[in-house]
Write a structure and sequence with these properties.
- With about 130 residues, the protein is of the alpha+beta class.
- It has four helices and six strands.
- Strands 2-1-6-5-4-3 form a six-stranded mixed beta sheet.
- A hairpin with a 5-residue loop joins strand 4 and strand 5.
C-alpha cells in the first residue's frame, strides 16, 4: 500500500468500524502517537500497548469522536490529513468541533508516527470541565 492508502485504511478501521486493534495493526513496532501535552490524554506513546492505552483514555473522555478529512497532502513517506475533529464529552454531553491536521509518517506500509495538530486544544479543555 502507498502511504496514503495506509492512512486511509487505518482511519477506516478506527473511525468507521471502531476497530482499535485493526487500527493498531497499521503501526510499526516502534510506531508513535504524539498528542498535545495539554490534553488529559497527551504525551508521546510508543508501541502498540502505549498507543492502545492513550486511545482508551481518549475514548473514556468522549462518548463520541470523529475526524473527517477534507484534504490529503502527500510527500514521499508523509501524509497530512486536514479536516474537522468533533467530540462529545462523556461526563457532560458537551460537544465541540474544530479544524485538525494529522501528520503521519509511513515507512514500508507501517505507521511510524501520527502527530495530530489541533486547531483549538483550549476548546477541548473547556468542554471537559
Amino acid at each position: 500500500m502507498t502511504p496514503l492508502e495506509t492512512v486511509k485504511a487505518s482511519y477506516a478501521a478506527i473511525l468507521d468500524r471502531g476497530d482499535l486493534e485493526g487500527f493498531l495493526s497499521f503501526f510499526a513496532e516502534d510506531g508513535a502517537l504524539v498528542e498535545a501535552d495539554s490534553l488529559p490524554y497527551g504525551g508521546r506513546f510508543v508501541g502498540a500497548d502505549a498507543i492502545r492505552g492513550a486511545l482508551i483514555k481518549m475514548m473514556e473522555s468522549f462518548s463520541a469522536f470523529s475526524f473527517k478529512p477534507d484534504v490529503y497532502a502527500t510527500a514521499d513517506e508523509w501524509v497530512i490529513a486536514y479536516g474537522t475533529f468533533e467530540v462529545t464529552v462523556r461526563s457532560n454531553g458537551k460537544q465541540v468541533s474544530f479544524p485538525l491536521a494529522e501528520a503521519t509518517h509511513v515507512v514500508d506500509g507501517k505507521i511510524k508516527l501520527i502527530n495530530p495538530v489541533y486547531g483549538d486544544t483550549a476548546a477541548i479543555l473547556e468542554v471537559l470541565k
